């Protein structure tokens, strides 16, 4: 399962030379990481979770030190030695600073916003200082994405947004976040792979399927019947729900001191907009879901109450953000194999 | 791992560029002394171009332009430097490489490369100069380059104050590691032959001497040698620091043997030519074959010689040195394996001639060499010598007669009149005013004409004590020439004709011998102000100590120091010596980490309440993040009813203490906590709550 998580992160944490042992090695590494750094929505980085190693620049720096040592040896020059040793001393104290820069940083997942497939899911993450120490040039990324750089200096907490590319609909668990920093000189990298338990709800990718199927019903030779857009007859009042159109709010009643109501306009039961699975016969499951998704968005934009009918689930026509989310979630979590007809 | 860095971010912002250029400038400045001007000009152009690119006024140079720049630079190097295996072209090559890198300075990687090169170039400065000012400047360079590296991290780090401050802080922390490594890391000695700084002009005494050479030197107060003694110190009249022996005379110039055959030209050719010159002389008794005298040595001392760019070293007569690269020659001088391009320290033991055994011999070839004279010229001197020999005088008697002659008629002066073709005759019989080289030259000429083997010796004579005889400072104006004659019974004997004219020169130095003329050409006669002279000596002493402790710290001194610190050098003690400071440093760092990571200290009540929460968590009911104390107490009441009452009491006490500032409540809280052990209480019966003894016994 973990291998899968990293499958879309391309070339991620470690480069092992040989392709054959790579998956094996990675699986072991990830198992080890899971034991050492279990998933949690709130993680404080400390010595158990952080790793420090010289970066490429650090290796170059070591090479320079070696060359200086050669220069000092061949010229029997103590001052050149002194420079070489000074730089070596710098190399010795640096990892402590690089480590200290990340140690004590707390990451907390605030939420992961749902998104459509083919889009980026956005995780909102709060970075806290747990001590007085500042955290500079902290980079967060889902490799191979570029991620973001953040400084936590003055304020105690900072909110950052991290985007994750989403390909498949459904519940998608994001891989571990690569938290790293090379502060202060860039010769060492201090890093951790943090699993903030980020899970995205991914709606199907909207794919247009033509105009909204007003009043269409299936049965009569699967012909779409055009029906005049209903909704001119006042039917009654219902409790206002957030997301109801303001145009339909019963302002008169509200002004009279009563609660907020929405006016309901009926257009007859068969004049409801039903986004029906069976209207899209002949297409495969994912395409149907994508088409339904596109309709949902369109209906929502047009403020037309709509219902959803897919195998195994029916949602009565309605409007509003909650309804929209319910419908989209239903589409997102539709079983992959579909239902045999 | 650099995959996470975005393309945009890998481009260099303005601050990064400016920092890189500042670091390069800092490194290039001191090198400008020996780098060609066109290189510095090229650097300026490259920097200007890169900044113009940054301002968007110009494009990055194209392929053709880059190719042109590279070929121009290479052509410049080829034209400037004929020899490639030398230090300056190598340094110039480094400088050229980062100059050229400037015009394609695009990514972080380029910046890093450029700065790493700068580190290296900064260190090469020390191959040229190792004085204190240069050392300080070198440290400054390292601080600036490190700051430039820090500035590459981002805008926040690029502020000058912050970058420099952090750089200085980090390097200060690196200092202890450096000191330990400096003392401990073994010095292996050269792994292969490296190019030396060879273009510098030869200073001091040269390989030949014609009238006027040494009086030229007498105008310089630059230090030449610093000598510290271990044990007895020779009296002033014996401080003859022998450097070269001239045996060949062409009528005007005295030179080393073989110099006229073109085999001896130290400044240009390598160390091999000395051997070449030797072979012409054909002296069979190479120094290494001659046994050292059985008694002695009389004097042990260390000489620190300023760079002279010639291989001759200076020591008292019959020297022997164990220092690596120092060789003893057949005529009792020391030579170094190559021209002395930077300060050189060597230890010498000396056996002065007066107690040397008398079994020395002069073979026929040597005898001929030391009697060599030009075929003609200086007839009056020859006639004078022949007359003395015909009188049947011994060698000593002839020498005494000549010295008497000097004593009665001659004047010692720094500004002798010019001499014509027969320089010896003119000096002896008409001008009679001269500097040491005139006396030495005419003396040896006349002695040779009288059939006594003789030679001219050049070197330094005298010296000035610094800091209560810590060391003897010998300056260029102490340069001196004297003579040695061969007496069959005693071997080579030193004769200083100058001493018979101006004994104070030998006893007290040049300044008192030629007070009126001394340093007359100096722009500012600093030597006339005593306090400035004193300051100069003080500064010289600081330099001397710096050189002795740091610059000339070699494996021998290293072992000595380690032995002094450790008692003996055993693996265990070495490990402790290296390990303990490291451990200490690590502990300090960890302590610092601990202290700097701790949040603001909580008030007492909050700390006590936190303890309560920890104990509750131990009992399996942790406080949720952000849960109010009251809510928490109610939850405890609900889930662990037996703990409910006491939790409520603790909570209310805490609230009173924390928000009401009630000192009594704080005391109560403390008392309640002392007996609050929910892990036991939750399991056992509640009746133990009031037993304070138990609480204490567990609490400690």
Could you describe the 3D structure shown?
By secondary structure, chain A is an alpha+beta fold. In chain A, about 30% of the residues lie in helices and about 30% in strands. In chain A, the strands form five sheets. A five-stranded antiparallel sheet of chain A has the order 2-11-10-6-7. In chain A, β10 and β11 form a beta hairpin. In chain A, α3 packs antiparallel against α4 and α6 packs antiparallel against α7. Chain A is elongated, with a radius of gyration of 29 Å. The N terminus of chain A is likely disordered. Chain B has about 700 residues and is of the alpha+beta class. In chain B, the strands form five sheets. In chain B, strands 7-10-6-2-15-14 form a six-stranded antiparallel sheet. A four-stranded antiparallel sheet of chain B has the order 3-13-16-17, covered by helices on one side. In chain B, a hairpin with a 5-residue loop joins β8 and β9. The two termini of chain B are about 50 Å apart. Classes of the chains: A alpha+beta (about 350), B alpha+beta (about 700).
């Amino acid at each position: 399962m973990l291998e899968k998580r990293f499958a879309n992160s391309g070339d991620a944490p470690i480069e092992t030379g040989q392709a054959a042992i790579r998956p094996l090695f990675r699986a072991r590494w990830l198992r080890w990481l899971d034991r050492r750094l279990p998933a949690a929505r709130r993680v404080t980085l400390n010595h158990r979770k952080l790793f420090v190693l010289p970066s490429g620049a650090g290796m170059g720096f070591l090479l320079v030190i070696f060359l200086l040592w050669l220069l000092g040896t061949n010229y029997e020059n103590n001052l050149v030695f002194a420079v070489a040793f000074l730089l070596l001393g710098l190399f010795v104290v640096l990892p402590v600073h690089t480590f200290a820069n990340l140690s004590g940083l707390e990451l907390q997942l605030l939420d992961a916003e749902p998104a459509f497939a083919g889009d980026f899911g956005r995780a909102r993450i709060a970075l806290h200082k747990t001590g007085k120490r500042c955290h500079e040039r902290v980079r967060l990324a889902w490799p191979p994405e570029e991620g973001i750089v953040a400084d936590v200096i003055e304020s105690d907490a900072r909110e950052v947004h991290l985007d994750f590319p989403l390909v498949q609909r459904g519940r998608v668990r994001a891989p571990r976040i690569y938290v790293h920093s090379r502060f202060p000189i860039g010769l060492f990298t201090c890093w951790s792979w943090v699993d903030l338990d980020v899970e995205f709800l991914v709606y199907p990718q909207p794919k247009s399927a033509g105009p909204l199927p007003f009043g269409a019903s299936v049965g009569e030779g699967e012909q779409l019947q055009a029906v005049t857009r209903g909704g001119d007859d006042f039917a009654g009042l219902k409790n206002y729900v957030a997301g109801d159109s303001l145009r339909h709010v019963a302002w008169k009643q509200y002004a009279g001191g009563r609660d907020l109501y929405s006016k309901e306009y009926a257009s007859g039961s068969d004049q409801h907009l039903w986004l029906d699975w069976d209207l899209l016969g002949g297409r495969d499951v994912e395409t149907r879901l994508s088409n339904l998704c596109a309709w949902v968005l369109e209906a929502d934009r047009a403020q037309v109450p709509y219902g959803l009918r897919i195998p195994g689930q029916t949602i009565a026509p309605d409007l509003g953000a909650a309804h929209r989310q319910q419908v989209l979630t239903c589409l997102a979590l539709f079983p992959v194999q579909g239902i045999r007809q | 791992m650099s995959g996470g860095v975005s393309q945009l971010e890998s481009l260099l912002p303005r601050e990064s560029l400016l920092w890189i250029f500042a670091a390069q400038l800092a490194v290039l400045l001191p090198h400008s002394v020996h780098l060609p001007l066109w290189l510095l000009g090229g650097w300026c152009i490259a920097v200007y171009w890169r900044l113009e690119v940054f301002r968007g006024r110009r494009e990055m140079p194209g392929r053709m332009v880059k190719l042109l720049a590279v070929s121009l630079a290479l052509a410049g190097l080829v034209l400037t430097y004929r020899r490639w295996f030398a230090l300056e072209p190598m340094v110039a090559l480094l400088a050229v490489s980062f100059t050229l890198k400037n015009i394609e300075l695009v990514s972080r990687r380029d910046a890093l490369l450029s700065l790493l090169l700068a580190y290296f170039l900064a260190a090469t400065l020390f191959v040229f100069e190792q004085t204190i000012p240069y050392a300080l400047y070198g440290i400054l360079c390292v601080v600036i380059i490190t700051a430039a590296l820090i500035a590459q991290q981002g805008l926040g780090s690029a502020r000058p104050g912050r970058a420099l401050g952090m750089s200085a802080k980090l390097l200060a922390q690196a200092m202890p590691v450096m000191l330990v490594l400096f003392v401990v890391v073994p010095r292996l000695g050269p792994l292969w032959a490296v190019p030396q700084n060879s273009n510098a002009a030869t200073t001091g005494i040269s390989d030949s001497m014609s009238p006027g050479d040494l009086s030229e030197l007498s105008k310089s107060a630059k230090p030449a040698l610093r000598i510290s003694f271990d044990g007895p110190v020779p009296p002033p009249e014996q401080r003859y620091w022998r450097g070269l022996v001239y045996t060949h005379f062409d009528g005007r110039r005295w030179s080393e043997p073989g110099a006229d055959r073109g085999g001896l030209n130290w400044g240009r050719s390598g160390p091999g030519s000395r051997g070449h010159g030797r072979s012409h002389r054909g002296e069979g008794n190479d120094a290494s074959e001659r046994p050292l005298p059985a008694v002695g040595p009389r004097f042990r001392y260390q000489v620190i010689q300023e760079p002279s760019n010639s291989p001759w070293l200076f020591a008292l007569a019959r020297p022997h040195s164990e220092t690596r690269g120092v060789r003893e020659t057949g005529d009792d001088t020391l030579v170094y394996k190559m021209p002395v391009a930077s300060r050189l320290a060597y230890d010498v033991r000396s056996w002065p001639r007066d107690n040397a055994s008398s079994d020395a011999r002069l073979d026929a070839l040597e005898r001929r060499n030391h009697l060599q004279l030009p075929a003609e010229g200086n007839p009056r001197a020859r006639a004078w010598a022949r007359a003395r020999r015909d009188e049947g005088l011994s060698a000593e008697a002839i020498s005494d007669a000549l010295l008497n002659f000097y004593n009665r008629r001659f004047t010692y002066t720094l500004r002798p009149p010019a001499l014509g073709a027969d320089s010896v005759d003119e000096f002896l019989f008409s001008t009679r005013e001269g500097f040491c080289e005139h006396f030495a030259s005419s003396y040896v000429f006349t002695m040779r004409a009288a059939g006594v083997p003789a030679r001219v010796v050049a070197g330094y004579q005298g010296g000035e004590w610094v800091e209560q005889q810590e060391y003897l400072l010998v300056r260029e104006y102490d340069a001196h020439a004297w003579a040695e004659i061969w007496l069959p019974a005693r071997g080579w004997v030193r004769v200083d004709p100058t001493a018979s004219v101006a004994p104070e020169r030998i006893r007290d130095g040049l300044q008192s011998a030629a007070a009126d003329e001394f340093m007359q050409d100096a722009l500012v006669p600093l030597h006339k102000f005593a306090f400035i002279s004193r300051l100069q000596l003080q500064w010289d002493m600081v330099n001397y100590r710096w050189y002795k402790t740091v610059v000339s710290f070699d494996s021998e001194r290293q072992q000595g120091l380690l032995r002094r610190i450790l008692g003996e050098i055993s693996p265990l003690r070495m490990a402790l010596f290296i390990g303990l400071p490291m451990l200490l440093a690590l502990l300090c760092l960890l302590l610092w980490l601990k202290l700097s990571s701790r949040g603001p200290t909580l008030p007492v009540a909050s700390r006590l309440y936190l303890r309560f929460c920890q104990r509750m968590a131990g009992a399996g009911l942790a406080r949720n993040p952000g849960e109010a104390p009251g809510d928490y107490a109610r939850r405890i009441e609900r889930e662990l009813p037996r703990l409910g009452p006491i939790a409520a009491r603790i909570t209310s006490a805490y609230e009173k203490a924390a928000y009401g500032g009630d000192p009594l409540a704080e005391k109560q809280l403390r008392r309640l906590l002392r007996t609050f052990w929910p892990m036991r209480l939750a399991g056992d019966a509640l009746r133990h709550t009031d037993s304070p003894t138990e609480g204490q016994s567990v609490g400690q």
